[in-house]
Amino acid sequence: MSIYDQHLERNAANYVPLSPVSFVERSAEAFADLPAVIHGARRYTWAQCRDRSARLAAALRALGVGRGGTVSTMLSNTPEMVEVHYAVPALGAVLNTLNTRLDAALLAWQMNHCEAQVLITDREFAPAIAQALEILKSERASQPVVIDVSDSEYSGPGDRVGTHDYEALLAAHSPLQRLEGPADEWDAIAVSYTSGTTGDPKGVVTHHRGAYLNAVCNAVSWTMPQFPCYLWTLPMFHCNGWCFPWTVALQGGTHVCLRRVEARAILEAIREHRVDHYCAAPIVHGLIYNAPPELREGIAHQVRGMVAGAAPPAAMIEGMAKIGFDITHVYGLTETYGPAASCVKRPGWGTASLSEQTRLNGRQGVRYPLEEGMTVLDADTMAEVPADGQTMGEIMFRGNIVMKGYLKNPAATDKAFAGGWFHTGDLAALESDRYVKIRDRSKDIIISGGENISSLEVEDALYRHPAVLACAVIAKPDPKWGETPLAFVETKPGATVSADELIAHCRGLLAGYKVPREIRFEPIPKTSTGKIQKFQLRERVKSARAIE
User: Fold this and answer.
1) Contacts of 10 (CB under 8 A, 6+ apart)
2) Considering only CA atoms, which of 342, 341, 311 is closest in space to residue 402?
3) 451-471: per-residue pLDDT in tens?
4) Rounded CA separation 3/267 (Å)
């Protein structure tokens, strides 16, 4: 035993398990009178936000929620969604934020799978929730206690489906004396479900330690200053808002809630509240830079956006730069709490040409500072690929910002962690500066006549045409070549372009075998977070990998 192991034990004075709940207590203590939440006419200071969260925690405890219990939510980006991120973890309970676009059957499946004790739901989603609860009755004996939220900014239809009203419940309970984290930072903080495009979705279980560290990384990697004004364009149900509910609390910032993600609403909020930070998938950034210039009038301050959710096309990064928005590209997955890597902008990049800046900033980058490992490995040998920018392998992570595993799915957990690394399924190259650049998802590589074609490379070429608003390229079965690139395209409002014109445009940017053989002008299916659902497109054309 070392001398440093003697009489130097952990105690309450020198060791506290990490939990992002502590950020809320600090901001309420130090910045009590500063704004915490803005939503329409509603305004809450940090003291009020903490009080409401502590009342919710007390109410949930009275309903029997404790360590390891699950609280599901069906909420838009409203103050209540902020509050559940503070209240539920303070009880040692697990937060399950449901995707508001799911159908009743999948909602019921997820709540049953995570054994939800309580459901907090907005009245807007009453029809789907009512159906889901009926399905649940046939699947389990005990039903979740349902709490209705009547958002001040929602005036549409929607019956109450629960036995409790959210505001009445808060009013009926005194706040907990303190929002405290768990005794063990390895305890689960949330369970988030993957899209489930190939069968039942997987429940990604994350822990307090990882949420704490990733919240810190968000601020550090983005050099987010104290007291940011953060706009909720990213759904908080998606990976717990990439941990930003806790990052904003860490920095004593202001949550500007946004119930509907529309260009006018986004730009009006940025102008009115001097929003300086927001996160979104590429399609939302596209809404901003494709908006009529008059909607951006009056926005003279620096606005910083974070983009992830899909590899952003170069045209998007370039477009945002032209309107003066500073964009940081991050990369991650639900299994890594959202972003776990960032394309850190090095000194000197700013003097490069716009096209070179676009290329540099379009990479997935390097691991977050508190993530222990990120590299590109050969999935068969688990050896790192050469840093030559060409050799492809699979992006893998390891460290504290990686999930605990998949709920009730040990086989999938073991497969994901094979070889001591988390396997992302994303194919990439390691460039000479050790920045990672995604080439494609393994299932999205098109193999034509024995040649590999990256669908992302073809999409990037299409996005460079001024008429293209959104596009997706998939493999189409071909009797001669095996597969050929097929592009689905949505055009910008008022723009016209023919398939022949787009094909000719691509010929000027791509090798001949990579050029799409066919262009289809059809609506492109997307998730609520803006991700394009290629599996649906594959099903349309009966691709061999439609069900992978």
Assistant:
1) none
2) 341
3) 668 788 899 899 999 999 999
4) 60
